[in-house]
Protein 1
Amino acid sequence: MSARAASAEVGYGPLVAALAALMLAAALASLMIGYARLDVPAALADVFAGRSTAAAVVLEQIRLPRAALGAMVGFSLGLAGAALQGLLRNPLADPGVIGVSGGAALGAVIVFYFGLAGAFALAMPLGGVAGAVVAALLLYALVGRGAGTMTLILAGVTVNSFAGALTALALNLSPNPYAAYEIMFWLMGSLADRSLPQLWLALPLTVAGWALLLMSAPALDALTLGEDTAASLGFDLGRLRAQLVAGAALAVGAAVAVTGAIGFVGLVAPHLLRPLVGNRPGRLLLVSGLGGAIVLLAADVAVRLIPVHPELKLGVATALIGAPLLYGLIDRMRREA
Amino acid sequence: MRACAVVWLCVALLASPAFAKPQRVVSLNLCADELALRLADPGVVKSVTWLSQDSRSANMAAMAAALPANDGHAEEALAYHPDLVLVGPFADPASIALLKEVGAPVVEVGAPQTLDGVRRQIRDLAATLGEPRRGEALIADMEARLASVAVDPSQPRLKAVVLRPNGFTVGPGSLVDEILTRAGLDNLAARLDIAADQQVPLEVVALLGADVLILDRDKQSAPSLADAALDHPAIAALARRMTIVSLPSRLWTCGGPEIVEAVERLAAAAKAARAREATQ
């Protein structure tokens, strides 16, 4: 415990600054490392001079959206994980584990494969958000307030596997013969060959979600004292719940619509960083978002360096790190209980 | 005297039931559907796969749409009491065994990897269907059209790369590779050290330095991520630097006579690319 107390003395400001610097470094690595040899400074000069050389196109249209989406999606997952854990007061609440990501993937799949994506520009990310909202509401109906870990996990498993089955069904019903083979992307996620327009479409909804989640920090801190105390301090718990569900759905839904569901990021980031913010859920939000971005960017660099073809899905890489961690977490909770 | 004997033998063989034209043909494969519809008499083909009825992805859709469709299962074929069943190269061995057990003759229509193989396949299937003259006519037409796009060997060859759905490219030693060569294009995939068709990251394709980028794309097909890979904005941005040509998949999915149209379209694209280089 003394080690934790010591590390908690890092200070919130310096911690945020250090994580932000690390995230920028990871994003830079994501820009520099790829499959083809690219002279990044020369390509950058071409981009700024408006020369559409092949190198400039690769940097601007392929590497840049990949790095930016990696940071955006990782931040969303880490932040949403920390917020849901604060709300449900359970360290196992993660958008992937409780089925919010799975619901978002289903929503995006329905919009995309049945030709609705062309109806209006925001259809895809909004489809993801709608799926995430439905999953979150289903989960909340089952879990309610103050439900135990067991109920939460069982409800999550139910929502998750149902969403996965419906995603497979939707893909099978698509008239395109390739669709049925694309379930791996939606269930495991990937940043390969994403594009700038996808980033611009997802960003506004995502940022709105971040704002809702980050603004809930004081209420989440008060919630650690118990619901009654928090209410007596003037926090409206019904509103907080709605705000967090909406925020998580916006941030995760828009992200999943672009990259597919990527698990464990929302679990790993808060878990590693919680001791460094003195276990305060409000302070955990921003650092967990930054941590999630670092984890996802690092995983995305790793899948490009591992000589496996076709490229590993991102969810595979994050599960290889996250699943043992989840196992250890459950084991510890079991022994503490 | 000897020639006379041979002629008599042939006549005797052709008259025997073994060489009679099949009258009830069922095809369980897209590529076999199209060849059979081109070669057989009207009314002989009793059923084709549902894939052949989609004009976006099939060449003989108008004829195919008038026939009952099947899903490529052996049981479906048996319902027509066929005297010939055509299957594809990846047909389930259990289905073929089932068909043979009930006495339906099964012929496999393969996926030829060379132009010679395409000719041989047309000739073989025409013989099987008892229409050798129609087969020869089809081949003669192909030869004439191929001869008319023959590339001037003094011209420098252009560099090309193929991008198919899901980011697959086409390696050397394939029919598509030969189609490119015939159109005066050198396949850059040979430089990538890949054996057969393989997925290639988009940034590698962009930086290969191709003169012509060939997209395997059907414009109106239902959405999929596989096809969306060909709509990446980086490809549109590269259009300033290279000639981009979309080739509908129906022209080069099967090794049938339609590949000549693929050669013609690519040769036209190569000509456009040369003209463009000359003006720059």
Note: The first helix of chain A runs from residue 2 to 8.
Protein 2
Amino acid sequence: MQIDQKRDLITSIVFFIFGIAVIMASRSIPAKNVGGDIGSAFLPELIAGVIIFLSIILLAKTIMHIKNNNPQKANKVNIQKNTETDKNVQGFAGNRAVFTSFINLCVYVALFKPVGFILSSILFLVLQMGIMTEDSKVTPRKIVLWGIISTVTAVLVYLIFYEIFSMPLPMGILDLDE
Amino acid sequence: MDEILTMFNGATLLLILLGSIVGIVFGAIPGLNATMAVALCLPFTYGMDSVNGVSLLLALYLGGISGGLISAVLLRIPGTPGSLATVWDGGKMAENGEPGRALGIGITYSFIGNIFGIVCMALIAPQLANFASRFGPCEYFALIFFALTLISSLSEGDMVKALISGCAGLIVSMVGVAPMDNAKRFTFDISDLNNGFALISMMIGFFAITEVLDSVKEKQAKGYQKVTFAMSGLGFTIKEFVDQLGNMLRAALVGLGIGILPGIGATAANILAYVTCKSTSKHPERFGTGSIDGIIASETSNNACCGGTLIPLIALGIPGDAVTAIVLGGLMIHGIVPGPEMFVTNGALINDMIIACVIASILIFILQFFAIHFFVKMLYLPKSILLSVVACLCIVGAYANNNRIFDIYAVLLFGVLGFAFRRLKIPTAPFMLAFILENYCETYLRRGLATYGSIDQFFTRPISAVFITVGVVSMLYRIYKNYKKNRENLAV
């Protein structure tokens, strides 16, 4: 199976399930139709129906594409598949870095309020710069540089928001008034 | 002439210059936008006279909308929602090694869009406002329905996936309290979901977070690409300018048209102009590949929309979007009540406003043009530092928009969604267009039905009937064309 067909297959199945989930969730929307109004549940149900219909079309189309692959085409596909596999192998490290970045973002967002903007931002920035660093080598000199950049950025942003925009960002554990 | 001389006093000019600079900075930083710039600077205008106060607010507004293109081009993250569509071609052109050229084109056509909107405001404001006042719920619904049918032209190959993406955008936008009856939809008893997802969260998640995650993957795959600076003159030739006249005019008219209709604004204008220009272009395949056509469509329209939104404000006293609502507040603080009578009672102030807009547009053009080299130098910073700082600013921007932690959770959610869409090759543009327009569409549909009691009015009122018919016919035509193309591909 070609990588594009795999993508389409996943898309159709995911959105089919999504459509059904939306229809089920729409059942709990209270109906308060006024005059000729259609109520709040009508449009979500209609659109969910359209999503299910479109996913079935996409699924049928993908299955047809898979079936239509004759041996000659399949040979071509195999070559492409191998190339894709190579790419996937190469991209494995990329996926790991993407996952680490995402976890770093999640931690940042989770710490934003309790720990405060300044500390959580410094932590996030240092880690993210480490993940994204150009030559993938982390040296003590680089860590110091990232630390300085992160601290200056976080403090500067905080001061701009606090002093100029009169919009204090969460201080978290640094808030000595609480 | 007297008004022009009045405006050219040192204090007013300085305020316009300051407003333009602050506006550009707010526009350029993802998460901050023109509305915030105007809202935060409004208190400073209390002590000024009306001309100075209004001039400052207008400069902030125009600067805020224009500045959005800088990050849209250089970082592929729109600075403001009004520059969303600029990413698709401006960002691509920068990626293709021409960031200076992309900025030059964007800045010039932003200026042209601004001037177009201001000229229309100066010459035909009352007529345009009267036309806009004929729009009832049926006409609004029909116009937005027409815009939604354009989703089919935003497909990047597979129309079914584009339509699925659009429908998903509609559903996600429905989360929260429904229009008309305030019924809660898909909130699952989470109170933060009652207000739905903020546009800014969707935009930052889809662009900024996806960009960071993609960059990480790109770096692992092939290392970061070197940036080159290539640009001469304004970034385009005279021949290109002449060739693009039709495209520019279409974009300006769409921007102006959306602007004069209260409640829609520059976000919808730039996407609508982009899809309209794409679907009417002789070379639709060029859109999304880093073409001049796409940048012109987006940047001309969002700035033409600024002039457009000021028209109902001045002529009818109705603000076109959130920014003009704050400008309206600023006018009222100075005892000026916009509306038809303003032309009689405060005619001189209207002229001052027009001149302030022209001066601000010229200053914004000059400031941005001479700063291009500086902007592009930003890209010479190590991507690891630049994108990490941008991600941090985006999270702060999303938080500061409503002071809600929930909005930054939503950023993450949309970031994952955007990343998954890219991996599954599902076009994101239809999702965004649908997300932006759903609320208007449903509100006007249900308001129309509640007002008239039946659906007949949507098909019997002339403006409404035309938009619905053109929308349905053009969508069916595009589906047929796509079907034919698929069959031909299958046969080959």
Note: The longest helix of chain A spans residues 71-111.
